[in-house]
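Per reviewer request, we include the raw input and output of the structure prediction for the construct analysed in the revised manuscript.
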Amino acid sequence: VLAALRAESVNAIETGYNHTDYTDTYKLGYDGSISGSNGCEVVSPILHNLTSLKKVCKVINEAGAKVNKSCGLHVHFGAKDFTIAQWVRIIRNYAALEEIIDSFMPASRRGSENGYCKSVSVPAYSLAHTSPRTITDIQAAFRRDRYYKVNAMAYNGHKTIEFRHHSGTTDFTKIEMWINFLRGLLEYSINNE
């Protein structure tokens, strides 16, 4: 797979589980939460467009990649410039749409059925009834736990907000549509609840 990615002009390395961010290199490596033989996760670098991601999906599909219900699609967006009010709006808006989003996810990603992507309804309710002043206050509403459909803890290591709701997929069109949906939600939530 690495050779095929390089043939498509995609920088990629094989790595163990780590949280190192790369600016131009995909990581292919072990993740203990993935079940099945030869479990591997693909972590993209920071993407400014989806050209390389489309190539990665093509290559791994040609190599026979499969997903199962232990796999998730995690999407990060830069959040270093978000105000606390914007964080709250994003989380509350996501919670307001969560049941609708659940309806187009597999059963294993709905409600709080999956311990790696729990519902944001309780944290959103908490934020609506408190006056958070810092990102730490936002994270406290999530009990400082990253395993929610919206992960505020990603801010500490990456200065991002992470969305963990979507099931694993190697289908580029699904990934692109999900990213576009999330981008639209963020853009709306910057100024609207």
